[in-house]
Amino acid sequence: MSALYQRFLKVLEKWPADKSKVGRDFEPKPVENMSQAKLISGTQVANEIRESLKQKVADIKKDLPDFNPGLCIVQVGGREDSNVYIRMKIKAAKEIGIEAQHLQLPRTTTEIELLDKINSLNNDPNIHGIIVQMPLDCDTKIDSHKITDAVHPDKDVDGLHTMNEGRVSIGDLSGFMPCTPWGCIELIKRSGIQMAGANAVVLGRSKIVGTPAAELLKWHNATVTVCHSKTKNIEAICRTADILVVGIGVAEMVKCSWIKPGAVVIDCGINVKPDPTKKSGTRLVGDVDFEEAKLVASAITPVPGGVGPMTVAMLMENTVRSATKAAFNLLKKSWELAPLTLRPARPVPSDIVIARSQTPKDISMLAKEIGLLGNEVSLYGNKKAKIALSVMDRLKSRGDGNYVVVAGITPTPLGEGKSTTLIGLVQALCAHKQKNAVACMRQPSQGPTFGIKGGAAGGGYAQVIPMEEFNLHLTGDIHAVTAANNLLAAQLDTRIFHENTQKDQALYDRLVPRIKGDRKFSKIQLRRLQRLGINKTDPDSLTPEEMGKFARLDIDPATIMWERVVDINDRYLRQITVGQSPTEKGFTRTASFSISVASEIMAVLALAQNMEDMKTRLSKMVVAFDRKGNPVTADDLGVTGALTVLLKDALEPNLMQTLEGTPVLVHAGPFANIAHGCSSIVADEIALKLVGSEGFVCTEAGFGSDIGMEKFCNIKCRSSGRNPNAVVLVATVRALKMHGGGAPVTPGAPLNKQYTEENLELLEKGLPNLLQHISNGCSFGLPVIVAINRHSSDTDAEHELIKSAAVKAGAFTAVVCSHWSDGGAGASELADAVIKACENSKNFKLLYDSKMSLLDKMNTIAQKMYGAAKVELTETAQKDLEKLTNAGFGQLPICMSKTSGSLTGDASVKGAPKGFTLTVNSMYVSAGAGFVVAMCGEISKMPGLPTRPCIYDIDLNTETGEIEGLF
């Protein structure tokens, strides 16, 4: 006997004794002038609903071919009666086009384990409906109410969550309604009777049927009475009903004497009754005596074939409704984003004062506004978060936004506001033009922050906030890069030490130890065996020669390219000696430190497209060459898996916001003069999906177009396969005057009056630098929008001169921007220009073919981007070129490492000289990142602190907890 049936009997036992005989002396007769009741076929209505749902699913798939509504039925144990219901639900789902899965858990499942499974389904974007099959058939006690409330309200297609029940109780029918009561309402509608103004009686007050049925009838404007086991005069009350809904759980309890002639009777009961005439010995009956009731009622639902099929149909309706909402969110073109209001002060205060004058949104709110799900956002406090890479899978069928790169002309040492312009542009697009728009930025290094440059959060009223968190630590990505880099460095030197102090057999035995009598290769060791052409998996089967070949990397210390890193400016680490301790037995070597953002691992982080790609790139990183000239990789050192573990969270981009509450993705931070100088591919990819086909992703490229933009196109876009739509080129009157021969611009020193007074002659002499950068953008087939970042001392005449020259040189347009002082409103014209430029921009092309030789690639970049006549290799660089080509790296793109202060390799040369020779001093490979680095001139990978670094001004107010003096 089922637990449900036992409960029915307990209800019956509570019923007053005199009520149990109600109707026995009544002889049923057909109502005068009335035939038998019309049958309301739940089977027929359910079929109609399923056909309608099938069409809805087909309509969704027209717009989203890869989208499938998903339903998961969770069952604990294996009760056969539950299995029958589950099979029925799965069959109905498949007929409609819903992907239904049955998650059957053992009877030993605990409450915690079940809650964990439900939470996992809540977080699965491919599951739109969750059903927990009741009753739970388990060995341990599980609170069923806690379980139903664990299902997220947005996936509670049973409609049993307290929140969904509460919505029904207050008349909010926009959520999921309980399926049986909702099915009853649909059947009443189909009967033709008007619920509005009708007297409705609900017999039973269960959470699943009676109570929600009464609420739904009430909100359909019926006058409702609920009867239960304590109700007096129940028969008389029932006879007042125009609509009688019965869900009391007692077989054939309601007799015809309870029914008002002409009433509509909805029987929700399903009971097993002995019947020797049936092969099974039983038959299903409802809570209403059907044979009697059909003689009195005008319409009645049969059992079976009445409410039962409707329950399943409405369950499917809820599932499709949930899936439709998910599909709508994928197709939705506009965010419901609430911008933050700016109130610009005059004169413009310091950056930190402006940043602290604005209260940021809770980052979870911003995440929801731009279409991220709760499980896709890992909060770091309430102002920053990481975004899960799974977003790309969920949004894979969504269109991609317009892709805009922001670069600059050759800057002064003060910088020309490229990051500020990026933020101002996105504030204008998003907060003022109501376009979906995301800014993608690099994470700043602590080196410049504590050195002389300061942070990189933008400035004035075009900033990322909170600026302190943006510039300090953020979520620890750079620290993860530092740890991973130095782990590899430690393993490299350690391996050299052990190879120098052990013979082959001893080395092999320690690399493949016998543990509890068992000896086996790890996964990474098996990969090394395959690379060596040793097709064996049993460690004991290798010959002595194979053991030596496997165990000994035979690294040539003179070829080591891997440096330790730290994320501060420390000039005394530019050259060091390692191995000085007596324990290292005299195996010393000269080494050096780089700043963390110069690590190849940072470049890998920025260029990886997913976790697997990052792992593959890490494995390929070349740390040195062996004595035979073969590259030695991180995989050879056995460290790939460990590096991936350290960087697992770092691969997720960080979400922050601008002063106007628009989204910013901050991720990775490779320097542009040393590495490729762009934020990450994964950040751009996620942003392009989030903004949708009519949105905009504006991403920065470091320094001038000759460095950052060139590498953005030739390295980053070559790797991602993305085609940018436009380039925004940031220019200032100040920088162009410097290139025209103006006085030196020195940080911390007052500007010469040439820069604060109108000087059209000097400005005109500097225009060739701008024209070269415009030409650079056009070389890639991109429309170039020149953004003139206005300074307070600029004049209209100076701006007009720049605008005229830019358009004449082939720029799409040139506009003046005041975002520093006015926020997004000051970049409104720039936003309009970007929107227009992206409308018909499909001419992007790479500068060179990957099959070209390394020398030809360098010459192409130098000639087209810098205006050089040719590239000249030093003797060292020539040897490097030959070694790298012979090692198979000739197909890789080139990363030119040169000064950002000039189009040439000499930072002191300003303007736009032509026909010069660019000297390449040395070359090395970043095989994991996927490019060859050409060092042009003296480029330090470890900056030094100035005489008076920013450190002097930075302090923590211990009373308020605020950071002081950062900017």
What keywords describe this structure?
single chain; 967 residues; alpha/beta; twelve-stranded mixed sheet; six-stranded parallel sheet; 34 helices; 38% helix; globular
So how many helices? 34
Q: What's the main sheet like?
A: 12 strands, mixed
Helix content range: 25-40%
Proportion of β residues?
Answer: 15-25%
Q: What do the pLDDT scores average to?
A: 92
Looking at how many chains there are and whether they match, the oligomeric state comes to: single chain
Span of the ends, CA to CA: 76 Å
Q: Runs with pLDDT <50, length 5+?
A: 1-34
Overall geometry: globular
Which structural category fits the helices and strands?
Answer: alpha/beta
**How many beta-strand elements?**
38
Radius of gyration: 36 Å
Summarize the structure.
This protein is α/β, with parallel strands linked by helices and 967 residues long. Helices cover 38% and strands 16% of the residues. The strands form 11 sheets. Strands 12, 13, 14, 15, 16, 17, 26, 27, 28, 29, 30 and 31 form a 12-stranded mixed sheet that branches. Strands 1-11-8-7-5-6 form a 6-stranded parallel sheet. A 3-stranded parallel sheet has the order 3-2-4, with helices on both faces.
Structure description:
- This protein has 967 residues and is an alpha/beta fold.
- It has 34 helices and 38 strands.
- Strands 12, 13, 14, 15, 16, 17, 26, 27, 28, 29, 30 and 31 form a twelve-stranded mixed β-sheet that branches. A six-stranded parallel β-sheet has the order 1-11-8-7-5-6. Strands 3-2-4 form a three-stranded parallel β-sheet, sandwiched between helices.
- It is globular, with a radius of gyration of 36 Å.
